[in-house]
Amino acid sequence: MLDDVIKAYNEAVLDTDRAGALQVVSDAVIQGISPEDIVFKVVIPGLDLMVKAISEGFDTNLAQHFMTSQIAADVTEKMLVLFKAPPQIRGRVVIGTAAGDLHTLGKRIVIGCLKAQMIDVTDLGVNVPAEKFVNEAVARDAQVIGVSAMMVHTARGENGAVKVRKLLKEQGLEHKIKLVVGGAPFRFDTGLYKVVGADAWAENGVSAYKAIIDCIQEVKQYGH
Ligand code: B12
Q1: Does the pTM exceed 0.85?
Q2: From the CB of 112, is ligand 1 less than 6 Å away?
Q3: Ligand 1, closest atom to CA 152?
Q4: Where are the domains of the chain?
Q5: Which fold has domain 91-222?
Q6: How many CA atoms lie within 13 A of 172 on its CB side?
Q7: Pairing state of beta strands 91-97 and 119-123?
Q8: What phi and psi, each to the nearest 5 degrees, are found at residue 182?
Q9: Ligand 1 atom with minimal separation from the 185 CA
Q10: 2-80 adopts what CATH topology?
Q11: pLDDT tens digit string along 149-205?
C-alpha cells in the first residue's frame, strides 16, 4: 500500500498539484499509514528524487522544483503534529535575503526543503541587515546563517555576507555559527562564496539542505 502512496504522491508533485498531494497523504493516514512513514518514506524520498532529476538533467522545470519544496514543507508541517513523539530537530537555521535585495522565490524554495528535513528555520524576510542575521542567529541558538542574494552587488557588496562574516569574527562566533550563501551570482562564479567569506554555498534548494546539514554537524561536533 505504501508503494501506491509513494507513486500517487510523486505523480501529484510532478503535476504541481498541491491539493492532490495533500489528498493522497490524508487518505493514506486514514488508511492507517503513520505520519512518520509519510514524512520519512514518502516526502523526503520525493525531494531526493527531485535532486536526482535536476542533477541528471531530467526534464524538470522551475514550477516542479518550487512546488516539490512547498508541498514537502506543507505536508511535513501537517504530519509533524500527528507524530507519536516530537521529531528530533536536526538543527537551527536563520535565513533571509541580503540587505538591498528583495528577491524571495529562491529563499522560499530553500526554506521548504529545510523544513521537510526536520531543520528548524526562521525566515528573516528580505532586505535583512547583517546585524539582524547575527543577532537572530545568536538569539535562536542557530548553527547556520543562510544569506540569499540574487544580484551581483548584494552578493558581493560590503553589506551582505561580507559583513555577516565580519560580525561573526568580531564577536568570536565563527566556530558556533556557519555562513551559507546562495543565489544566481554564486552559481555563475562558483568560487565567489569564498571571496565573500562564506563557509559553503548551494546551487539549488533541494541540495541546499545537504550543505547546511554538513555545517550543522560540524558545529555540533567542534563548535564548543
Ligand atoms: C523574479 C525576478 C525578480 C522579481 C522578484 C520577485 C520575488 N518575489 O522574488 C522582481 C520583479 C521583484 C525583481 C526585481 C528586481 N530585479 Co530581478 N529578477 C528576477 C529573476 C527573473 C528570477 C529570480 C528568481 O526568482 N529565480 C528563481 C529562483 C528559484 O532561483 P534562485 O533565486 O537562484 O534560487 C535558487 C538558488 O540560487 C538557491 N538559493 C537561493 N537562495 C539561497 C540561499 C541559500 C542559503 C542557499 C544555500 C541556496 C539559495 O536555491 C534556490 C532554489 O533553487 C532574475 C533573473 C534570473 N534568471 O535569475 C532577475 C534578476 C535577479 N533581477 C535583476 C534585477 C536587476 C532586478 C531589479 C534591480 C530590477 C529593477 N530595475 O527594478 C529589481 C531589484 C529589486 C531588489 N532590490 O531586489 C537582475 C540582477 C542583475 C545583477 N547581475 O545583479 C537579474 C539577474 C535579471 C537580469 N538578468 O538583469 N526581480
Answers
A1: yes
A2: no
A3: 84
A4: 2-80, 91-222
A5: Rossmann fold (3.40.50)
A6: 1
A7: parallel
A8: -165, 165
A9: 83
A10: 1.10.1240
A11: 999 999 999 999 999 999 999 999 999 999 999 999 999 999 999 999 999 999 887
